[in-house]
Design a protein that fits this description.
Layout: H1 9-32, H2 44-69, H3 75-103, H4 110-146, H5 168-174, H6 190-203, H7 206-228, H8 246-256, H9 277-290
Helix pairs in contact: 1-2, 1-4, 2-3, 2-4, 3-4
Length: 291
Amino acid sequence: RLSCTRNNIWLACCGVLSSGLAVLSSFGLMLFCGVPFVVTVANAPFLILGVGVDDMFIMIASWEQSLRKKEKSSVKSLLAETYAEAALSVTITTLTDVLAFFIGTWTAFPSVRSFCLYTGTAFVFCYVYTMTFFGAVLVLNHKREQGNRHWLTCMRVDVGRGQAENSCLYNACCIGSCSRQPSQPEGEHPMSIFFKKYYGPFVTNKWIKLLLVLLYGAYLGGSVYGCTQIREGIDLRNLANDDSYVIPYYDDEEKYFSTYGPRVMVVITESVDYWNESVRLGIESCAQNLE
């Protein structure tokens, strides 16, 4: 926003900070509990940031809607209305994410287990910080706007006096407009108008609803068929670059040596007297029996 009082830069920064606090809390707890830290866990902060910013947008949008509905209401009623609108969707998405990653801890791969533990715990902390820390930041930001304070310095902006002799640059920085008039609160967002006036009536048409049900049935049938075609395993060629020398190696191995099966090796873990002829004959006999 161009308005120096309604600009929400710090609000957005605190939303990102909330995700960062969730990452620090989860990593600290897991390391304190002795969960191994593997390289794949370093990707978890990007996942948490995406979910945390999404929750932040939901909270801000619900706050703005509550503010338009109950502009003269108290902060408590505004925050209650915001949580009534946003907390349900944030809770459901968080539960599905946490459930998905905690199910992943059942895997036999230790690296995947550690990644799922770190990420799932981070989602829990992200939810806690969004419901507590970010809600408090919303209230503080609202009080700053109500006090007509600058977004950067938090100093009170006096609009009605002394602006005539100030420069346009000064007014743009301290008021948000060169016209020496405070910017008015904007109306409803164009995207909200589109979904309310056009997309909503279009989707609720009975023929469109029937078409959507048919499309979903086709999608569900295709998904079930796709699940039956999944092959378990991993193709090592997919882990290398397209121009890597590894790909021709695996192609030749599959073409010429796939019929022989995997290599079998025999390892003797005990100390034996290899210079003893009877020991050598025993080892050869063992290898012949395995063949």
